[in-house]
Structures are given as structure tokens and as C-alpha cells.
Amino acid sequence: MKTGQDLLTPTWLVFILSLCIYRSHQLVKPQVCKQCSGTVPKGSEVGKFCSSSSGRVVGRCCLANETSNHERIIGLDLSNCSLTHVDNLQEASDALIIDLSSNAIINMSDSAFQGFSQLRQLFLPADIACPGGNSSWDKVKTNEGIRLCEGQRNMCNQSGKMPVHCPEYSHCAAYGPGFFQCSCADDYHGYKCLREGEFPALWVFGLLGASTLVLSLLLWLTQRRKAKSL
Ligand SMILES: *[C@@H]1O[C@H](CO)[C@@H](O)[C@H](O)[C@H]1NC(C)=O
Ligand SMILES: *[C@@H]1O[C@H](CO)[C@@H](O)[C@H](O)[C@H]1NC(C)=O
Ligand SMILES: *[C@@H]1O[C@H](CO)[C@@H](O)[C@H](O)[C@H]1NC(C)=O
Ligand SMILES: *[C@@H]1O[C@H](CO)[C@@H](O)[C@H](O)[C@H]1NC(C)=O
Ligand SMILES: *[C@@H]1O[C@H](CO)[C@@H](O)[C@H](O)[C@H]1NC(C)=O
User: Fold this and answer.
1) Which helix (H) or strand (E) covers residue 189, if one does?
2) What range does the record give for the signal peptide (predicted)?
3) Which of 153, 157, 171, 175 to probe ligand 5 with, by most ligand atoms within 8 A of CB?
4) pLDDT tens for each residue of 6-41
5) Helix or strand or coil: residue 180?
6) Quick check: 127 and 107 in contact, CB under 8 A?
7) Structure pTM?
8) Beta carbons within 10 angstroms of residue 130's beta carbon
9) Average of pLDDT values for 63-92?
10) Cβ atoms of 149 and 131 closer than 8 Å
């Protein structure tokens, strides 16, 4: 009896944990879409992009299905939103297009777009510079009070300009305009990727996997017993 309970406790934990993970993926609560009233206008750049990529407009956002039960923000339109500062856009870090034009923005730091590696088009008030500077973008245009930063350049792949160096045993990945990230190669971790060996996460997932197996086995056994008694 004792051993049976010891086996059951981790399986229940796994079950509850899986349920929590599933729920957190189901509920999308993008605060950034409610930063100001109204929805993405149909005729706007974000609106046109959204309908051409069969997205769903929710407030100031355009959402698209990533997997069957997870949506992500692919477009954000905060134009004419009375914004003075740009921060807390992190929820939209997967966006391909962002419109911040027609706002009296006083201050915008480059770090506001750290991690926005998918961003291809950014509309800003004409007096605000493109994040990461002009050299982080393929094209910078200014027209009718709107600055367009278009075609984000990959910092890992800048021929001529200041070459990017990641430490040994790591590789470079784009991490938003003007940013890059060095990720450790397989089997390396820790400061400057100098520690060799598998990351503990693998071991943890291994353990979770084992508990799931036990759960499946238990279910199979109980169901089989039921089937036999019928
Ligand atoms: C996203 O997936 C749901 C459920 O599978 C579906 O009802 C919905 O139409 C999809 N939305 C888009 C924009 O593809
Ligand atoms: C901005 O919003 C105000 C009302 O909030 C509206 O009167 C004005 O026409 C809008 N401007 C643009 C360019 O959409
Ligand atoms: C802009 O922000 C930076 C850092 O967030 C700050 O140091 C600077 O004083 C700000 N400038 C203005 C004009 O608010
Ligand atoms: C960046 O490009 C824009 C548009 O071409 C230009 O107006 C601006 O002066 C440039 N900024 C810098 C720092 O070179
Ligand atoms: C690096 O840049 C060249 C030319 O700009 C491009 O053809 C190539 O695909 C880029 N590679 C990566 C990994 O971005």
C-alpha cells in the first residue's frame, strides 16, 4: 500500500503541472492590446498586414495561431494612442509589424525592442530615431511625419561593420534591432559556456517523462482489470 502511494504522488503532481502548462497556453491576456481604446483600423498598415496573414484583430493587436492552442501577437498598432514613453511592449516581442506613429513620444530607449527579432516594419514619429540606429535596418524612410524602419538587419551577419564575437562553444543569434545573443552550443553551459555537460533541465524532463510513463502504466493496468471483469 505504501509503495503504491509513493508512486501515485508524483503522477498527480505531473498531472496538475501539465494542466497548469496547458491552461497558461490557452489563456492569452495581452495587456498591450488594451493600452488604448479602439481596434486596429482596417485600412492601416497593421490592418492590411493582419488581413493578408489571416490574423485576428483583438483591440490594438493582430493575433495569429502559432499552434492549435496558442496564439501570438504578430502585429501591434498603438498609433494615435497618446503615448509619451515606450516600454512594456515585451508581450509583443514576436510581432512582425509595429506602429507607434502619431504619438508625442519623448523618450524611447533601444532596450524597449530587445528580443524583437522578428520585427520587419516599425513606424515611429519622425523625430524618433530607429532603435539600434540606421545601421540596424535595411531602409529608413521619413514621410509625412512618420519614420519607417524597415528590414531588420541581423547583427550576427554584418559584413564589414564591427564584427560580432561570441565566446568559444557558443553561437550568435539575432535578438532585436542592434542586439544579438550568444547561446551556448549543445553540451556547454555556465559563464562563457565554459562548463561542459548536460544541462540539468534534461534530467528534470527525463524524470517527468518517467512519471508520465508510470501514470500511463497504472491507467493501462486498471483499465485492463476492468475489461477482464466485464
Ligand atoms: C485558430 O485556431 C482556432 C481553433 O483551432 C480556430 O477556430 C481559429 O479560426 C483559428 N484562427 C485563425 C486566425 O486561424
Ligand atoms: C486620433 O484620435 C483622435 C481622437 O482620439 C481623433 O480625433 C483623430 O482624428 C485621430 N487622428 C488620427 C490621425 O487618426
Ligand atoms: C530618456 O531615458 C533615459 C533612460 O531611460 C534617461 O537617462 C534620459 O534622461 C531620458 N531623457 C528624457 C528627455 O526624458
Ligand atoms: C537615419 O536616416 C534618416 C533617414 O534617411 C536620416 O534622416 C537620419 O539623419 C539618419 N540618422 C543618422 C544618425 O544617421
Ligand atoms: C548574411 O548576409 C547575407 C548578405 O546580406 C545573406 O545572403 C545571408 O543569408 C545572411 N545570413 C544569415 C544567416 O542571416
Assistant:
1) strand 188-189
2) 1-26
3) 157
4) 545 555 544 444 544 444 444 456 889 998 899 999
5) strand
6) no
7) 0.72
8) 23
9) 91
10) yes
